[in-house]
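User: structure tokens for this one?
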Amino acid sequence: MSLMGVRTLCARAAVLALSAPLLAVVAIPASAGPIGHAMTPASESASQVDFLPDSEPDAIRLPPCLMAVPLGCFKTQTIRAAYGVQAVLNQGITGKGVTIVVIGAFRQPALESDLAMFDNAWTQPQPPLPPVAGKPRVIPMDGTPPFDPNPKGVQFPFSLEQSVDVEWAHAIAPDASIVVVEAKSEQDVDLVAATKYAVDNNLGDIITQSFGEAEMCAAPAVLEQQHAVFQKASELGMTIFASSGDKGAGRQSCDGQSLVLSASTPASDPLVTAVGGTHLVAGAGGGYIAETAWNRLPTTTSAGGASGGGFSTLFRRPGWQAPFQKDNKARGVPDVAYAAESFVAFWNTHGVVVAGTSAGPPQWAGIVALADQAAGHRLGSINKTLYHIGKSDAYSTAFNDIASGNNSFMDIAGFEAAPGWDAVTGLGTPQVANLIPLLVDGQG
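Assistant:
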């Protein structure tokens, strides 16, 4: 891949000014956090993770939810069946020649062994792992601290997120290469720096990010830098995904003490494809039965969660979203959705069952890796194409339209799922075999 010249921040600011029609003229309140506010991963709570009994040296112990009917959790074969991925893989479209970049935070030294356990559990080959631009496939940013495996520490959810993202991107695009860029902390400024490194060095074709924060908590300078990075990624033909969050129409307040009504950034940027969550009902073998919006109430043992969604206070409604929602001052999120419960993964040699929007962005990244291979080139930002499909006759065969449920969560009133696009599950979940040709054609 050719590497475009690196531009200065001033030049990036000029590009940002050119894209100003996307930005709502809204003053960011003085209470917005300073540069360095913490983002949270989509799997932000330990109570969204169930640890499995440790496996024996000669056998991986898998959870009984894989055998329930309907399925209580998913493995690679069942999610591929539910969303029509296997038919594409059977045609030899496996993501070969395409690279997915996972943006994470902190180190995850067991990433390779976790991926090996994941592959052994489902008897599938490991992905190609070539050096990229002279670097190993895992690239920690300067200043990244040593790994801390404490499940109650700040590093745990991010290290878990890395494992989930790598494993499930690989599940969808088994021959795609995967590069992980590890930010030195959970601070938004450091995660933006990691994303910028990936873009400036043209490390891959698709970027996936499973983290976010309330729009009001990001400093204006961070938002400006982030949008400039996404603009450059778009110029390079990269596709970017981000999770829409796990707190329904809310996000954690800037002090972390409550929930506030807010869309999540980076998902709310129009150059990003935002991924919400569903509750997928599938039969034995993964046969698709039904889906509703993901909304799990908190219990004494679980923090619960709901598909993130709502309307941006930073970005105006893009033109491609105009046929779907009336507020021209606010971009709506998410754009699409994916099953949010539950996925079997491996972290630090332990089996886990994970709920939340964590696994959606990397699996959508895998879908676009398949489409990139089929097209023979990068697709770039796919939002315009997705919404063109959404208003075409092909919509009902390319997407599962999620029309029931809502994302009201705790004391934050949310939105209702409805036919077509909605601020809970977007356009819906993919019917991959039918969707990929439409993505390749660039139209609905």
